[in-house]
Design brief:
With about 180 residues, the protein is α+β, with helices and mostly antiparallel strands. The protein has one domain: Hotdog Thioesterase (Thiol Ester Dehydrase, Chain A), CATH 3.10.129. About 30% of the residues lie in helices and about 30% in strands. Strands 1, 2, 3, 4, 5 and 6 form a 6-stranded antiparallel β-sheet that branches. Strand 3 and strand 4 form a beta hairpin. The protein is globular and about 45 Å long.
């Protein structure tokens, strides 16, 4: 595989716009004037915020929410993040956030948030995140509760049906 200079990844491992369309858009957003930096593109903190929000929203949809914390005395802690930029988002560009669960174990979950440039029909950014289920009393990893583990497995099976996968840097994705 040859490198195309986009985030140091081989061209074959970067999903196309058409492939990304298979993931439902979590949000559709527009780059606002307040998000533009002196380089005339969206500042990195706004890429991160949008990607982190779709990860948090996904955790909540999987059942990792306030009720989970109260009921099971556990929560998902971020163990690592890897962010990569593939193209600029500029003033008034439209973009969407999308998510894919890449791998899971009994105690951890790895997912990738995609910021998709809807104006230019291309990938703008990815944020890979590895989350660990942590017992809030002991501050140690513990297995996800059964209902959350089932939801993660169901979503992972659905995402595994997609004919592409970003070659990730996370610990779980390297092992899968």
């Amino acid at each position: 595989m040859s490198d195309n200079g986009e985030g140091g990844l081989p061209r074959e491992s970067i999903p196309t716009y058409q492939q990304l369309e298979a993931l439902p858009a979590s949000e559709r957003l527009t780059v606002l004037p307040a998000q533009i930096d002196d380089r005339e593109h969206m500042n990195i903190r706004h890429y991160f915020d949008a990607a982190a929000k779709v990860i948090l929203d996904t955790c909540e949809s999987l059942g990792l929410d306030g009720h989970y914390r109260d009921e099971h005395g556990a929560d998902a802690f971020t163990a690592e993040h890897h962010i990569r930029y593939f193209s600029e988002l500029r003033l008034d560009d439209s973009y969407s956030t999308r998510i894919r669960i890449d791998a899971a174990s009994e105690k951890a979950l790895c997912m990738t948030a995609y910021l998709v440039d809807e104006t230019q029909n291309r990938l703008a950014c990815t944020l890979e995140s590895t989350l660990v289920n942590v017992d809030l009393a002991t501050r140690r990893a513990k297995p996800f509760a059964a209902e959350v583990a089932q939801q993660i497995d169901t979503t992972l099976r659905d995402h595994d049906l997609l004919p592409w996968k970003l070659q990730g840097y996370g610990r779980l994705t390297r092992a899968s």
